[in-house]
Please model this.
Amino acid sequence: MKIRSSIHDRLVIRIGFSLAVLLLVLFFVIVTVQKEATIGKHRIVATTMIQTAIIPINDALYLSESNSDDFLQSFINNFTRKYRDQVRYAIILDQNGRVIAHSDVSQDQKIYSDIYSLAALEAIDPVFHIYEHEQFKWVMEVSAPLGLVSLSHGAVRLGLDAQPMINELRRTTLLILALFAGILTLVIVIVLQITRSVTHKLRHTVAAIDTFDFQTAEPVPLLESDDEIGLLNDRFLNLQKRLIAARSTMEQTNKNLIQTEKLAAMGRMAAGVAHEINNPLMGLKNCLHLLKIDPEHSDDHIRLLKDGLDRIEVTVSQLLEGARKKTGRIREFDVNMCVRDVLNLLGHRLSKEKVITQVYLGDNIPILSNNKSGFEEALLNIGMNALDAIGGVGTIKITTSIQDRKIEILIDDSGAGISNKILSTMFEPFVTTKEVGKGTGLGLYVTREIIESMGGNISYSKSELGGAQFRIELPEIMNN
Model:
């Protein structure tokens, strides 16, 4: 049987997928935490820097409002020059959003109404956001309001270089990703080793099951282990022992059944032979009586005595032939002659029950070399079953012919046929439609065993006579 999906593959896929999902979730959680920590660290730096700038700006606005614009522009220029490695731009807005100082003087007096400027003017605490600037690439902007107590003078916006923070986040993400990929690979390798070990044991058990032969006398050895597979192997080993013991018992029972049916067949045949002997014995007695009372015609009486003795001799010879068939000895025989001999054995019942026999023996039927006595026993079993099925006046037809290089023997009867209920089991032992005490249910079973041992085949179908038709096919050439 081809395995569509092995346990090994399913374990690796399911465990690998589960671990991949778990590690992916864990990866996103760690990356998120690490990202927040990194951004938080840079926020602290940005907060410190903007607070450093706000204090002198508030002092300038409070102490010298008259020339504060010039001071603020000068302060912005000095501040951006001092922190040029970190600060990308600096903007001071008044309370209306107008630029009163800018690191880019071209922006002076320009009014900003974007959401970040409005947020800076309305905020109480510093406000942060990170974005990609057209000129400075990645920038972290921090905004804080200006003023002392309740007096508001606007806001300060500082654009700090965020590229180092972005690079740090990327390095950290790649490092964590590489770490998780390595862990996932290591776990999958471990799972592969574990599942390979488990499935190897299972495959060894499967191989042992495949090599186990029911006809052998010894069970197939299996691997020993202290896990569930070891338990499975122990159970299979016990099963092997039980099967071997059951086979031995079944063989002995089968032999007993066959012997019982052979004895039963011999008994039926002996009953017919007894009738054949009783008739000439009565004639012999009559001849002896006539010899006493009519010695003048002794020659005729002696001839009748001889005919009676010859008839008894033939009958006894047939009986001895039936006894010798228990050996199943291979010998040459004529199929047509066997048919005639069996009909002679059944002659008493045929005449008593007024059953007509129609015999059509084919020409050029070859001489066979096989179990002659077994073949006769099979014909006798079918013939006795036909007589039992007819139960009185009826017809039995026997035909022999060559069909497709096989010798075909058809036995038809006009009985009731075989019920559909037992068609599928008719060749099994103890299957019978006869009354209790009138049949063992072994006749057809033994018949099939004999025919198959001869290399032939037996089958059943409905006869044109209304009853059963048994078809026996034997190969023309049989091995010695």
In short: The chain is about 55% helix and 20% strand. The CA atoms of residues 262 and 390 lie 23 Å apart. The chain has a mean pLDDT of 79. The first helix runs from residue 7 to 63.
